[in-house]
Prior knowledge:
It comes from Prevotella dentalis (strain ATCC 49559 / DSM 3688 / JCM 13448 / NCTC 12043 / ES 2772). This is ComEC/Rec2-related protein. It is found in: Cell membrane. It is a multi-pass membrane protein. The chain is α+β, with helices and mostly antiparallel strands. The chain folds into 4 domains: about 20-90; about 100-215, CATH 2.40.50; about 230-495, no CATH class; about 495-530. It has helices at about 1-15, 20-40, 45-60, 65-90, 175-180, 185-190, 215-240, 245-255, 260-270, 280-295, 300-320, 325-340, 350-360, 370-390, 395-425, 430-455, 460-485, 500-530; strands at about 100-105, 110-115, 115-125, 130-145, 160-165, 165-170, 195-200, 205-210, 425-430, 490. Strands 1, 2, 3, 4, 5, 6, 7 and 8 form an 8-stranded mixed sheet that branches. Helix 12 crosses helix 13.
Amino acid sequence: MWEKSYICSMERGKTLDTRPLLRIALSLIAGILVGDGLWLHVSLWLWLALAAICLGMALTLFRVHRTAQGALILCTTLLVGATLADWQNRQLHVVCPPHPVSYEAVVVGEPQVRGKILRCELMITQLPIGRMLDHPLHIQASLLRDTFTNRWRSLHVGSGIRAASQLEPLRPYSATQNRRPHFDVVRWLHVHGIVAQTFVLPSNWHASPPNLRPLPWLQRIRLHLLLLRQRLLQRYRMLGLNHQSYAVVAAMTLGDKSQLNRNTQSAYAVAGASHVLALSGLHLGIIYTLLTLLLGRFRHRAVAQGAVLTAIWTYAALVGLPPSVVRSASMLTIYALCLLLGRQRASVNTLAFAAIILLIANPLCLWDMGFQLSFLAVLSILIYYRPLYRLLHLQNPFAQWIWGLTCISIAAQLGTAPLVMYYFGRFSCYFLPANFLVVPAATAILYGAVFMLLATPIPPLQQYIATALGHVADWLNASLTALSTLPGSSIEGIVIGRLQLFIIYMILCSFTVIVRYAWKVRHQSRLEAFYK
């Protein structure tokens, strides 16, 4: 009987002790939801006081009552989440002046043409001109394009501008609301720190020398990295990449999706391959593998891994630190540390740790679609990949690769399909063949882009690689366009609300728990039979 009790205690320990960060992450998320819903009604100081009280009580119970202490730690985490959400919402709550104002600003996002207007992000440093602000205001500006002088063409990341216009509270775009009714544009803008919007006539602005001193040092670093990214994108064009081949390479390698036209975006979305256009774990994993191979023969593994991680985080900063990239970089960092220490490399705890980092840095990124899809995809892979992969026992390496990619695709789809249907009203039926196309192509494009930039001292070789890169991108575009036009490529017009979305995930979670419990019971009975 002692074997049975040992097995049971081992299973209980696994349940209670191996995923503490998951419980903390869930408590933090619950706190952010509470704080976001009550920030207009509850004082920030009340959240801080309650968090301090719970933390003090948890410390007094140190090694006295572990269960009560654990509950108090989770309560403290919840209250910290509420405090962070409350503080972030108050930072974004700006009362706009009731009349037009003159201001000086810096362009902090590459301007994009949208019909007759030029849309760009501005960081206002003086309001009105001559009066420095304590905290720069991050706004979204729509400049009416002047087709006679074309002055708008001179505006790029880092440009200075002086303008006079009416600052207005954020409001949703009608076109976006019609196409994606569940997508909250105002919330998305808040996630990115934008607090107001404005419309500027051609006669009400002119270029000026940029003044970066009022900007926070992190913002200045980000601006310099964005300028570097623009120079790399210009290099792509100089090497002959153009049209949608350039757009796809720019999106996959540097996270710039501004040049993707609607047809390309639609083809990727219908085929179920939109994820390859958004930088995520796939892209960083490919880059990490390449850098590890290049530095694999280095004598000191710790130094090699340190160099690889430095390159990964520099790249993450270069592409703007979107949530999916920060999540991937955080998990790769933990993976590398576990590799050096000989510990378990990938777990739900690792994912939870990455979520905690992101939510502490910006609690409102909980409402970012990229954050939601990225974490759900990885969580789903961690839960379902191994059980699916064990269904078949294959000996051929190529067959193992095919089956492994199939299992990863199905696992990720299980977690993200309900959310995609909620936001986009679509289910892509050919996501499996699409992944078999995009994974090799994305690998070739990322490797090719790295070697293309490294070959700068050898122009003929660099031009040859750029030409090959363009052909791969054109082939991928043509393949996914053909796939998206096949009969039954997607189910359109799906309409589900928040309640239905919640029910779908509850059913999925319940099914998962039941299957895992049945597997554990079966496994335990086999062990008992073995000991008997």
